[in-house]
Write a structure and sequence with these properties.
This protein is α+β, with helices and mostly antiparallel strands. Helices cover 28% and strands 37% of the residues.
């Protein structure tokens, strides 16, 4: 209808121009030009008035079509994400206490051992020979002391002889005990029950306290240690819930913080946190990397997708909601307060209620008080 009116007005203008002869004089041509422009302006004003009248009478309006979602009323959780490394208290490299030639290795790699079990033997022949000699001397010293003691009890002999015999016996006993301890150090003994992970020494080779002999591990209980920036110090405490994920194992564990460090590392402004884990099947190995999510916030309330939140020129957060009006809906702008945001979800502390209809698709093409059509979903 608008196009028809425009064509009609232009046709009338052309017809009137053709009907009047075109002047040949420059002054007259300028006068005719001014007259035609005046007529065009007048017709444009009339056209605009007609269009306004048509818009008021037109019942078929082209409205924006939008979709909507309802806020979710539920539990919102926020997590701090850090990385950690698996460690084991019972994973040690055993060094011999004394040097010597390895004469026997009684275990193999992968073998389970118990606490106190002898794992290997170093050459102790010199110590054993010395022990045998001292035993002979000690037997003689004991006999001599016992005789002197009987005589002394009978008030026979001098006190000095008695004390010398006693001192000789006790000195040999102490020396013998020292040799026994030295002979024991020539054995490699398991400090705890576990598994022989690796044997570094060879039979016949000389072992030294400076080099490891073998490694024993017990992975039934391991822990994860992580360094966390001091910014989160007030949010992380012993007993805080954590979710530990091992990407290499495709395994996830829910547990709690076991220990929080009491020292801030001045080089990187961080503190240490520890998470103990029971490793029933020994699948978690030392030095394995772990992704740790530490829960620092939890609240029940309104939750909406973060992507539907917009910012105005004053940097205030808002969403567009819908108000039912007759057959269609009116666009309402609602300012909101974002409590926390995590994993593309936002916790709204103020501004929304569960009954609100929030514009989803089409939110960037509407304005306040626009009339829109709600698409069927």
């Amino acid at each position: 209808m608008k196009n028809t009116l425009t064509i009609l007005l232009i046709s009338l203008l052309i017809f009137s121009c053709n009907k009047k002869e075109i002047a040949k004089d420059l002054q007259e041509l300028n006068i005719q030009k001014t007259s035609i422009k005046t007529k065009i302006d007048s017709l444009n004003k009339k056209l605009k008035t007609i269009e306004i009248a048509i818009s008021k009478l037109d019942t078929v309006k082209k409205l924006n079509v939008v979709t909507s979602i309802s806020p979710k009323n539920g539990v919102f959780q926020h997590y701090i994400e850090v990385q950690g490394t698996v460690k084991a208290d019972k994973s040690v490299e055993i060094h011999p206490e004394l040097g010597g030639t390895t004469t026997n290795i009684y275990v193999k790699e992968g073998q389970k051992v118990r606490k106190g079990q002898v794992l290997a033997q170093l050459d102790a022949s010199v110590v054993n020979n010395t022990i045998a000699q001292l035993k002979t001397q000690l037997n003689l010293a004991k006999t001599s002391f016992e005789r002197q003691e009987r005589l002394w009890n009978q008030k026979i002999g001098s006190e000095m002889q008695y004390l010398q015999a006693k001192a000789q016996k006790e000195s040999l006993e102490n020396n013998l005990n020292t040799l026994y301890a030295q002979a024991k150090k020539m054995k490699i003994i398991a400090p705890f029950s576990g598994t022989i992970d690796e044997i570094f020494a060879k039979v016949g080779a000389i072992s030294s306290p400076q080099f490891p002999f073998l490694r024993v591990v017990n992975l039934s209980k391991v822990y994860i240690e992580s360094e966390i920036t001091e910014t989160y110090l007030k949010d992380i405490k012993k007993g805080t819930d954590v979710v530990v994920n091992f990407p290499s194992l495709d395994k996830e564990i829910t547990t709690k913080i076991t220990q929080v460090g009491n020292f801030i590392n001045p080089s990187n402004r961080s503190f240490k946190a520890r998470v103990d884990i029971y490793n029933k099947n020994n699948t978690i190995k030392p030095n394995l990397l772990a992704d740790i999510r530490i829960k620092d916030f939890e609240a029940t309330g309104i939750i909406i997708p973060s992507y539907i939140i917009q910012k105005d020129q004053q940097n205030n957060s808002f969403v567009y909601t819908l108000l039912k009006e007759d057959a269609n809906y009116k666009v309402i702008k609602k300012h909101i307060t974002i409590g926390k945001e995590y994993n593309n979800q936002s916790y709204i502390s103020e501004g929304l209620n569960p009954k609100d209809l929030i514009i989803d698709k089409g939110a960037h093409s509407v304005q306040i008080d626009d009339e829109v059509v709600l698409a069927k979903q």
